[in-house]
Amino acid sequence: MGTFKIEGGHQLKGEIQPQGAKNEALQILCAVLLTPEVVTINNIPDIIDVNKLITLLKNLGVKVKHLGPGSYSFQADNVNLDYLKSADFKEEGRGLRGSIMIVGPLLARFGKGYIPKPGGDKIGRRRLDTHFEGFINLGAKFRYNREEYFYGVEADTLVGTDMLLDEASVTGTANIVMAAVLAQGTTTIYNAACEPYLQQLCKMLNRMGAKISGVGSNLLTIEGVDALGGTEHKMLPDMIEIGSWIGLAAMTKSELTIKNVSWDDLGQIPNVFAKLGITLERRGDDIFIPEHTNGYEIQNYIDGSILTIADAPWPGFTPDLLSIVLVVATQARGEVLVHQKMFESRLFFVDKLIDMGAKIILCDPHRATVIGHDFKSQLKATTMVSPDIRAGISLLIAALSAKGTSTIHNIEQIDRGYEHIVKRLKKIGAKIERFEGN
Ligand SMILES: CC(=O)N[C@H]1[C@@H](OP(=O)(O)OP(=O)(O)OC[C@H]2O[C@@H](n3ccc(=O)[nH]c3=O)[C@H](O)[C@@H]2O)O[C@H](CO)[C@@H](O)[C@@H]1O
Ligand SMILES: C=C(OP(=O)(O)O)C(=O)O
Where, by residue number, is the active site (predicted)? Predict the structure, then answer.
């Protein structure tokens, strides 16, 4: 287990370039299984989850070439389906959440797809019903081994149909789309998720020869085709990382420029941080955050009542930034109610912030009220364990703003989704060191 030691209370300054989007990368990498031709992918983030998925693809027989920083080519012209029966696969497949999305492409191209219960953050129940109901709707037979938590779908042919998803699941929609592109006839998916990750996936699939319309909406229409070909794709910047750096700038009262953010793909994100009182300036495609010398003030609603920030499927506010919103609010002027609707166990990390001196009331597992200090009282350094990726980065931001030296254990959780974080944070002046072990 790795550890960060962080000396807090220092202002940062400079430019930071966001990495390629983790959640997009996990979808796009799985899509290489849909064609025997070469797919070249750029701006792939160098993070644990993505590297695990690349290893899994290699073990499945996909030819992987590293072309340069963040660029790889993939060719799935000799896929080894026997690997899916191996003990190694049962171990590797559960190493991350994104591995679930190999099932749709494998089912569509080879008639069978298997996966052990995938990993990812322990942030509450994370069911997979939407994925498998979708495959069943396309004509697949489903089986589940309860002892081994092993899922499987099989079908000689998939046949397009109309379906209404029980929830707008991000990875579920991606999985079903990747199965439907090679099905016979037309599939419609209503209540589809439409995050930029999915829009990017659909655009890439269309470049490979798929026929998907409605991209960006919650109604996708997919005309099945016989085969897909190769293509080249570039990942968008990671919007969750961008939100994390906005929070970091505000909490440390630092002037930061976040470079090349693809502003038009950020949806509500700039707006939500602006509601917390943070000044964000659009400079071309960069976000400039000035030094917040006088702090930042949370806006109330028009009628004077307390602001609520809640998550919702896109174009709503992403749940992956609520932990960051929460930590940023601890130093704001004013109060906010943070409502994490999707996940049941994602707010428990507030205990740590309370230990550090933050004024937070955890109302129930989904809601926390934060009363900001307006920098009149600094958070105190402490020792903590990162419970999940976004709580981890939030605790890191808290530590960078706190007085004294903090220790964060279990930083692999942060490494899952943040590329070369020590090097990048040091470049803007952060005092952070990594240690292996505890
Ligand atoms: C690898 C990857 O891409 N992970 C992301 C993906 O996970 P993932 O695809 O696993 O998440 P889902 O979209 O399936 O759902 C996440 C949770 O939200 C609940 N839910 C979902 C849809 C809905 O309309 N209402 C609702 O309550 C689900 O029951 C589930 O508990 O999407 C999540 C939701 O944006 C993000 O937090 C994860 O970072
Ligand atoms: C919850 C997240 O990731 P995963 O779905 O991979 O656990 C996240 O990225 O915030």
Answer: 121 (proton donor)
